[in-house]
Write a structure and sequence with these properties.
Shape of chain B: elongated
Strand content of chain B: 15-25%
Number of helices of chain A: 15
Strand order of the largest sheet of chain A: 1-2
Shape of chain A: globular
Largest interface: A-B, 20 and 35 residues
Helix content of chain B: 25-40%
Number of helices of chain B: 17
Radius of gyration of chain A: 22 Å
Oligomer: heterodimer
Largest sheet of chain B: 7 strands, mixed
Structural class of chain B: alpha/beta
Order of helices and strands of chain A: EHHHHHHHHHHHHHHEH
Strand content of chain A: under 5%
Distance between the termini of chain A: 21 Å
Number of strands of chain A: 2
């Protein structure tokens, strides 16, 4: 008996949506085995991981707070990924965006203005774009691989942050802690639900999802992104300019990451600290793929990944499991997703190849 | 030499969906013989060779090796028998040395011991100078080919297959290669030499098998033939002479190419040398030629994917367009049908209506402030489907779900419905079923009758005679003077295609 993969004549539309679900189920099953091996009751662990965080209003609010940067960045990255532009340095763009936006908040730390928040958002977006413009320029000018340049620039961005909070931007009255001043109230995102951290940032994320959706499904830029990604030669035939799309997709994804940085800073943290993001920029890569590179898919994937952060926290607190559990969950999810994606273009067949399949070869 | 053929093929058949690639092909290669396999592109040479080398199975037919029947499951089995092949496109790693590349491609037992000195031995013995320690990226194309040849020779082959080996070589390199091949032949190695270059075959080969449309049409001794007679056999003598000679073409010039010289942007590409041509309203100009003689470069220049050196090298309706991009040229009035359907003329995974937007967005006003007008786009695609009788359940289906003929009708139709003043069509009916082909040809003639200028580039001479008013030939990046289809013969075209001027002299050795 032979088990083979056979190419489907047309991409399976059902599998496009089923494959993430298969991945989630496989992740949960494997996690249960893992918990069992650690000597923990698997069912209780899953309950703690996935359900306990959502049992309170505050927990639910935190879910949206954590999902905000993931969704924002995920939407931006998914556009680039569709055009085969692999920006994996969103973490650095997030940090630089947070610094340009947060710098503005520090400059006006003792002044109140309704324009401060919008101005911070604009500055943060521009900061993220500028950081992403470096790989874009290197790619279009020198054909430098954007995977390497964007990733390496992430670490540069983190060091810039570290320098600023340990040096020039350190709070003068902060007992020498490596933290900036606390932001003025008018530099903080308006809270949506009292007693929680849920803020306007979530609405911004939803707006970006909507804009991303319109762009990719109806606008000629989105059309060009898809064509270049699926058939570069057809893009050239149609007269689409690949370099221009590299710029556009990197600037959009960098801008989204920068905006996410500002929102995280002014919505959830309130000052500049040495660690702004627990790796949102990297996790968003998983979010983009889990969401099928579609803005609406990214929305749900972002919520799911946010849950793994919360679940990791609660597993740590109530069950004394290591924090690494979060990373393991996220890694497994991406792994199983990529594996299940084979089913979109191929189907599993048992037996010897059919004549038709051979003719296609 | 013994009387047992080293290789004998009996009644090989192979078909792909919609195409018969090999029909009852038989072939004999004797020990020490240099045997030419001659035919146009698409004649079935590659399919046959893939079968001999174990890459592909045949539908039926037998293969005898030294008189005994064999079945080759894969190229390894072929190599075990002593069959080696030098491909047209090399498989070498630029960042590795010659020796490393050779050791990757041969069986592990051969890599043991001092491979480097054996490489030196073989290359000295056969006059193939090669330094095992050089990095491949520092080598010329001719030297790279030597790596492939040496790799074969290290395995002591008894049958060497060479697929269009001279297409990338300079005349001097060709001469050196021939010396090596003659020497191998003297030592008893059989060589199967695939080419469409008649002069080379005449110089090198002992016997030739000529294929056309998947069948063996003749066997001959090249030394006793002329390039002219072999060209006739290769093209087929049964071509219908065109009858459409009366239609008067006196319209204005709509497409003009002047002094177009350009260096190819592709590796192993063909540079274009001082091209001139003009296509008038109501006229179809056919360009014949064997693939790889500059058609691709010419197409890229005309579409605007690669810009011309000067604006007035190309003009449409008197407007210089040489420096305009494809979108701008389309709005001036250019329609384009590329050679490749999937992945070039159409995005395989996109729906038909989206593929309509691909080339018709500007001319058909399918955009509004950058937003795609879905209703208008769908309507446009439906018009194309209806007018050109494209068989599809609906325009929401992916382009790749269509058969070759139907997709080609859609792609041609997509351009024609846009009513361009000038339309350029590459291989209009390549791999298309007879019914669709006839419909496509008719639609091109109708376009010309309506006053458009049509430029058709094709390897199918029959097709060119059927539709063209004038025919020119592209060879080695040069275009011959266009002549009225009624006054040029198949023979003359065949010779021009093979680089031989009608007088009999060789125009370009390469």
């Amino acid at each position: 008996m032979l088990i083979r993969l056979e190419q489907r004549p047309e991409v399976s539309k059902i599998m496009v949506y089923v494959s993430p679900l298969i991945a989630v189920v496989l992740t949960i099953l494997t996690a249960m085995i893992m918990f069992g091996a650690l000597g923990v009751d698997p069912f209780k662990a899953i309950q703690t991981f996935f359900f306990e965080p959502l049992s309170t209003l505050d927990g639910v609010a935190e879910l949206f707070v954590k999902a905000t940067p993931l969704v924002l960045i995920g939407v931006g990255l998914s556009l680039g990924f569709q055009a085969n532009v692999w920006n994996i340095g969103a973490e650095g763009q997030l940090v630089i965006g947070a610094l340009t936006g947060g710098g503005l908040a520090l400059a006006f730390y003792n002044q109140s203005s309704v324009f401060l928040i919008p101005a911070m958002c604009v500055c943060g977006t521009i900061g993220g774009m500028a950081w992403a413009a470096i790989p874009a320029w290197l790619k279009t000018r020198f054909n430098c691989n954007e995977i390497l340049t964007s990733l390496m620039l992430s670490y540069v961005g983190l060091l810039v942050l570290s320098y600023l909070v340990h040096g020039p931007w350190k709070d003068p009255e902060g007992m020498n802690f490596p933290e900036s001043r606390l932001f003025h109230d008018s530099a903080l995102m308006p809270i949506l639900i009292d007693e929680t951290r849920l803020n306007v940032g979530w609405l911004v994320a939803l707006l970006v999802v909507l804009l991303g959706w319109i762009l990719i499904s109806r606008h000629i830029i989105g059309f060009q992104i898809k064509v270049i990604g699926m058939a570069p030669l057809a893009g050239a035939f149609a007269g689409f300019k690949e370099k221009r799309l590299i710029w556009i997709t990197l600037l959009i994804s960098g801008g989204c990451a920068g905006l996410a940085g500002v929102i995280e800073l002014s919505g959830a943290i309130g000052q500049i600290v040495p660690s702004i993001s627990p790796g949102y920029g990297f996790t968003a890569i998983i979010v983009a793929f889990l969401g099928r590179l579609h803005p609406v898919g990214v929305l749900f994937a972002g919520l799911l990944m946010a849950l793994t952060y919360l679940g990791g926290d609660s597993a740590q607190i109530t069950m004394n499991l290591p924090n690494a559990v979060t990373g393991v969950f996220q890694g497994m999810l991406l792994f199983f997703l990529l594996a299940s994606d084979v089913l979109i273009k191929y189907r599993v067949r048992v037996g010897s190849p059919s004549i038709e399949a051979e003719a296609r070869e | 030499m013994s009387d047992t053929p080293r290789l004998e093929l009996i009644g090989i058949n192979k078909s792909y969906p919609g195409v018969v690639a090999n029909n009852n092909v038989s072939l004999k290669v004797m020990p020490g013989e240099i045997h030419a396999l001659l035919g146009e592109n698409g004649a079935g040479k590659s399919t046959l060779v893939k079968f001999i080398y174990g890459v592909q199975r045949s539908d039926s037919g037998r293969m005898l090796w030294e008189g005994e029947e064999v079945r080759l499951a894969n190229p390894n089995a072929a190599r075990k028998l002593g069959i080696c092949m030098v491909f047209q496109h090399f498989s070498l790693f630029d960042a590795m040395t010659v020796e490393e590349n050779i050791s990757l491609g041969i069986s592990p037992e051969l890599t043991k011991g001092d491979l480097s000195s054996r490489i030196r031995d073989v290359s000295a013995q056969y006059g193939l100078p090669l330094d095992p320690d050089r990095y491949v990226h520092t080598l010329s194309v001719g030297e790279r080919q030597r790596i492939e040849v040496v790799r074969c020779l290290l395995q002591d082959p008894t049958l060497l297959i060479m697929d269009e080996p001279t297409s990338v070589l300079t005349p001097q390199e060709v001469e050196d290669l021939f010396k090596t091949l003659r020497r191998l032949s003297d030592e008893g190695v059989s060589i199967l030499y695939i080419s469409h270059k008649l002069q080379e075959i005449k110089m090198l080969c002992h016997t030739a098998t000529i294929m056309r449309m998947g069948e063996v049409v003749a066997e001959c001794t090249p030394a006793n033939e002329t390039a002219r007679s072999m060209a006739e056999l290769m093209m087929g003598e049964n071509l219908i002479n065109p009858e459409r000679t009366d239609r008067k073409i006196d319209g204005v010039t709509r497409l003009e190419v002047k002094n177009l010289t350009a260096v190819s942007t592709h590796q192993h590409g063909t540079d274009l040398h001082n091209l001139h041509m003009e296509v008038r309203a109501g006229e179809i100009l056919g360009i014949a030629g064997i693939a790889g003689n500059g058609q691709r470069e010419l197409m890229e220049m005309l579409t605007g994917e690669v810009l011309a050196p000067e604006a007035d090298a190309i003009s449409i309706d008197g407007k210089s367009v040489g420096l305009l991009d494809p979108v701008q040229r389309r709005s001036v009035g250019l329609g384009l049908v590329p050679e490749e359907r999937l992945g070039y003329g159409a995005v395989p995974d996109m729906s038909l209506w989206e593929n309509g937007v691909l080339s018709a967005a500007t001319r058909m006003n399918l955009l509004n402030n950058g937003f795609i007008q879905v209703a208008a786009s769908t309507e446009f695609a439906e018009d194309v489907v209806e007018e050109f009788r494209v068989k599809t359940p609906g325009v929401n289906h992916a382009a790749k779900s269509l058969s070759g003929g139907n997709l080609q009708k859609f792609i041609v139709g997509r351009e024609i419905v846009q009513k361009p003043g000038v339309i350029i069509v590459l291989q209009p009916t390549w791999g298309v079923d007879a019914g669709s082909a006839a419909a496509i040809r008719q639609s091109l003639i109708d376009m010309a009758v309506d006053g458009a200028a049509v430029l058709a580039v094709s390897q199918d001479l029959e097709e060119l005679f059927e539709i063209s008013d004038r025919i020119a030939v592209i060879c080695a990046g040069r275009i011959s003077e266009a002549r009225a289809a009624a006054s040029i013969t198949v023979e003359e075209i065949g010779l021009l295609m093979a680089g031989v001027e009608p007088g009999g002299e060789i125009a370009h050795a390469d």
